[in-house]
Structure formats: structure tokens, C-alpha cells
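COMPLEX REQUEST
Ligand: L-tryptophanamide
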Amino acid sequence: MEEKKLIFSAIQPTGTFTLGNYIGAVRNWAPLQDKYDCIYCVADMHAITVKQEPAKLRQNILSSYALLMACGIDPERSILFIQSHVPTHAMLNWILCCNTQFGELSRMTQFKDKSQKHPDDINAGLFTYPSLMAADILAYNADFVPVGIDQKQHLELSRNIAQRFNQRYGDFFTLPEPYIIDVGAKVMSLQEPTKKMSKSDENPNACILILDDKDTIVRKFKRAVTDSEAEVCFRDGKDGINNLMTIYSAVTGKDFASIEAEFAGKGYGDFKTAVGEAVADHLEPVRTEYARLIADKAYLKKCYTEGAERAMKISSRTVAKVYHKVGFVDLK
Ligand code: ATP
Ligand code: LTN
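STATUS: Structure written out below.
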């Protein structure tokens, strides 16, 4: 039998997932379980590269874990774990840091954006974030990494790090490939549609959280920034409408031509309401399943404990081989 390819991805528990996280990344993870072996992780170590309040972080880690399950990730079929439970990521990170160049890290746009946003805390972890992300992926020798388009640059760096290691120490790591969807790989802010929708946006009207209730979702869409025309069509310069069309297409499966036809002669008000309702209806089952899971802490604990054990088993083999390759003395 042909061996299945391996998928790895992760998300930071920096808050409730947005519609951007959902459409661009997380909702694509469940269907991949049919065709691939999948490993998914809550990247809590990445989250502390910006300041987090400890009690809130702990809550966010658990809720992110439950949300991933509510989005269809099955912790038996796949490996679903919390990054800090599996110390091999930090171990491999160090080796990879020593194979990553300062210049490469300096070019990362996420580092530049986040250091501008948090000028009082430009810490070393924020700078070396991509090496830890490479460690996450390479610890399992993943073939494909499903992410939104904003993570493409980090993935290219992971490939370069893997390649450099392979050249220095002999072929070892699989070079991971990004797996990026066509429609919705970058969902934009509802208030500033030239910026990506982000969990950490301060303006609550800018992003839809996947646990928002229907009224909130519809209200946020009604307030979405558009343009001064009145035509629902996908065109350069119509960033707000293009974004709403992308979202509507992602949740209804309709293509742009049929969306344009559906709203021909109608105003933006009708269109915004339709998008809001479609999104709320689409997210309803996720909200219901989340409420059920988050109430069952014992079950969540069982799942993340087993997930960590399974992840540790695979990644510790990788780390032992890497330690040997770089010239460390074997302990056993
Ligand atoms: P933060 O605001 O804390 O930086 P974030 O909302 O950007 O967080 P991440 O945890 O960095 O989210 O990303 C999780 C996944 O969601 C990644 O695969 C990322 O590419 C994807 N993603 C994030 N924002 C969007 C977006 N607006 N559109 C599409 N995909 C997105
Ligand atoms: N940096 C990612 C989260 C992340 C990740 C990973 C994604 C951490 N480790 C490994 C893919 C593979 C982000 O989405 N901001």
C-alpha cells in the first residue's frame, strides 16, 4: 500500500479564531484527514512572543483546542496536541536557530509588522519565531502545510532551513510544501479591507469571531466598509466588496459570476445582510459543538494527553537522529 503523505499545521491561541483563520486555514484541515495523515497543534509557545496574560492564555489554549475539534478535527484519526506539552519542539528549535541566518529572519514581514505594533517588546522570541515554526514542521517531516497566504514567507524559510541542514549534515529533512487554498487564503478586515483580518485587531467590528452569535455577525457585516458605488462585482479597487464576495463564496460555494447575478440591481445593504446571515448559519454547528466540548474538561484532557504522547513518540525519534547528526554524544 502506498504510504500516505503527512500534513502538519498549527494555530496560535492568541484569542478566539476569526473568520479569516477559519476560511483561510482551519476549516480546510478536517477534510484533509480523509486523504492524509494529519498532525495539528495549538502553538502556545508561539503565542508568548507577544505579551499574554497567563490566566487568559491558559483559557485560550483550551478553547483553541476545543475549537479545532469543533471544526472537525478528530483527535483519534489525527494527532491533535498542545505545543508546550511536547518539549522536542523547543529542542529542535535550538538546532534550527543555529542553522538560520540573522539576515533571513530580518526579512520576515510578520516580524516587521509585529515589532511595529509592539515597539516596547521586540523580544528575541519574536525574531526567531520562524525557526520554532520550522521545528514544528520538521520534527514530523511533514510533506504539506495548510496555511493562509500570510504564512507563505515563513514556510519558504522553513524549506531553506531544512535545505541548509541537509546540505551541512546529509539528506535528512523532507522539504515541506505550502498548501494554500484559491479563494479565501487572505480574508481582509471588515473595517480596513486592505489589511488582513486578525485576531489581535483592537477594533471589534473589524473581525468576525467564529463564536460570535448571529446578531453580532449580521451587525458587523452591516457596518463593513465598502465603496461609494452600488454594484456588487469583483473588481480592482473594490477591496471591501471583493472581500465580502470572497467570504460569501467561501461559505456558500457560489462562484463570483453567480454572486454578481444574484445581487444585480440590489444595493449593498441587501448584499451585506445576505453575507452576514450566510456566515452565521454556516458557523452555527461549530458554535454548538464547541459549547458541548468546552463543558467536558475531562474529555479534552484525555484528548490532549494522548495527542502529546503520540506527537512525542514521533518527534523524539527525529530529535535523537538530529542530535547524532550534528555531533552530540548519544546518551543511549
Ligand atoms: P494574530 O493576530 O495573533 O497574529 P492571526 O489571526 O494572524 O493571529 P495565526 O494564529 O497567526 O492568526 O494564524 C493561524 C492560521 O490562520 C494561519 O494559517 C494563517 O495563515 C491563517 N490566517 C490568519 N489570518 C488570516 C486571514 N485574515 N485570512 C486567511 N487566513 C488567515
Ligand atoms: N506561525 C503560524 C502558526 C504556526 C504554524 C506552525 C503554522 C506555528 N507553527 C507550523 C504551520 C506550521 C501562524 O499561523 N501564525
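REMARKS: The pocket of L-tryptophanamide (ligand 2) is lined by residues 8-12, 43, 46, 133, 136-137, 145, 147, 151, 154 (CB under 6 Å). The chain is about 55% helix and 5% strand.
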